[in-house]
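Worked example

This section walks through a single chain of length 280. The input is the sequence exactly as stored; nothing has been trimmed or padded.
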Amino acid sequence: MPEGRDISPQALVTLSAVAWISFRLAILAVLVGVLYFGCAGVMARSTRARIATAAAVTGPVTIALAVTFNPHWTVMLAGILLSAFGFLVGLVLVTGPSPISLERRVASRSKRIPVALLGVAAVGVVIVIGAVDLLVWNPQAKVPALSFDAIYARMVEVDQFSPSSAIVGVTLWAAFWGGSAVTVFILAARRSQMWMTPRRVSMLLLSIIGSAVFFRFFAGFSIGMSIADTFGTNGASSSIASAVLPYVGQLALATAAILSGWAPKIRNADIPEAGDVAVA
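Given that input, the structure is written out below as tokens.
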């Protein structure tokens, strides 16, 4: 949760509500993913695929029960072994004779470009907020008694902190993920890239948002540690933006995963036992 004297009770209540909603949406996304996986296993004609699905679903449930009720340690071990077995066998089946395939589908530029523009704008907002938060808002939230200039001056004096290096790190982070989003937009805008359907564009840009939020930690690591060493605080982020962005990233990745699960299925005529295989 954010800290500091400037954090109002209303902001904390709002953030708590966002966390409550985000957590339940993430749980819903996980349940949808389990449903997709279970349906894929049921529809598969291969006995091995059904066994792998049963193990992959039963394993995490067993682990959850073991954590909740604390039974004998063998229950936890059984859950771990079932999960590992289901994952490994499923991986072998996916990379075997009936891999996930890419269906040839097309979409016009008039459908691709608006989605790409909206996605690039969303990535830009996340990058700008994330960068400003790392360099300005979070340091001020950690040390509210000092001004922005005084915080940095103190860090330079006590911890030999290099503001230029921190700015370079944040800039590289922003440039990489911003450039990735622009690349997706360029591909979506080209007439020859008709395979870039709106769903695929959304999947890519949502994945970029989630990845950018995740790797933001590394971009701001030196700043957070210098604040902790200089002022005797912990290295955790304290601003409201730092508290909200992880939820944004998690929801973006969960939504991208759900969109990938909406892909239709095709019939693999060459391998009858494979049945239906998922396509992107």
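What to look for: DSSP finds nine helices and two strands in the chain.
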